[in-house]
Give the backbone structure.
Amino acid sequence: MDTQSSHRYSVTIVSRGDAAARRDATAQNSRFVRVFEALAAAGIAAQPAIYDESFTEAVREQLLAVDGVLVWVDPIHQGKTRAGLDALLREVAARGPWVSAHPDIILKMGVKEVLYRTRRLGWGADTHRYDSAFAFEAQFPQRLRGDGPRVLKQNRGNGGQGIWKVEVLPNAPTTVRVLHALRGSLPEDMPLDAFIARCEPYFGWGGCIIDQPFQPRLPDGMIRCYMSGAKVAGFGHQLIKALIPPPPEGPDAPEAQPGPRIMHGPDAPQFQTLRRLMEDEWTPQMMKLLAIDEASLPVIWDADLLYGPRDADGADTYVLCEINASSCFAIPDEAPAAIARTVRERLVGARP
């Protein structure tokens, strides 16, 4: 008998919540219900594991009792970071259970610094990294005045936190107009040195600030390429409003709200060129550059891409603006089955 195929694997799905959410959590009432269903169909027993720093010990016991741990927790949530959770996940992984995404992999590919490290790949742009407040203050003003509008990004964050469009006002080289990517934000004019001071806290937990050129085709929308391991699991296209000034009616007007994310499967005809680039070129190149083997890639992650300038033949190009590896959700209808296949392959590969 094949003991590997007959083994009943078990996993937990970790998400953040309070004590009441932990007490009441089931696979059926979870927002990951379709992932639970796909795992069950693949012969994998799965249970929810609600996490908060106030009951870390109970979560530790739960995670150590399974074969694998799948994690959907944002880098920043209501002022809380993943610092405590990441330490727990490293401990759990060292004691046996397989963890995806492992915190060390997130630090390689799921932070904004990946935009700088992979800037020379086909999805790259004129990207810079500031490692200290001193370097930022010394280098950013000249770059801003010479290169046009820029987008600054704190290294770790989500939901638009710490992402800014910055441009110099005409005839006022020491004054900038800034727009935060957080929903509901309004453009603000302020002295450049005051804005630089505002960004200093980003050098704390995140460690650096990433600087990219603003992409004029932003109104054409963002393509989210969903990956399970090294294979495309689907696409999402959304007309986003972040970093676009709101209409005169204000940031709460219907016209200021992002459009729905239209989901597509991996075989969607309009995205096959992008699929080929992701699977055959960019993901293998990223893995080599960041020293990530295929078995360590998250079971679900996504590359957020904006449309770059059209090439000489009029075809679209793409610019990477973010990789999400901590908490990639919502996902296309095809993705839960892809996740379950990848999970089973990883668990079989990890079993002695």
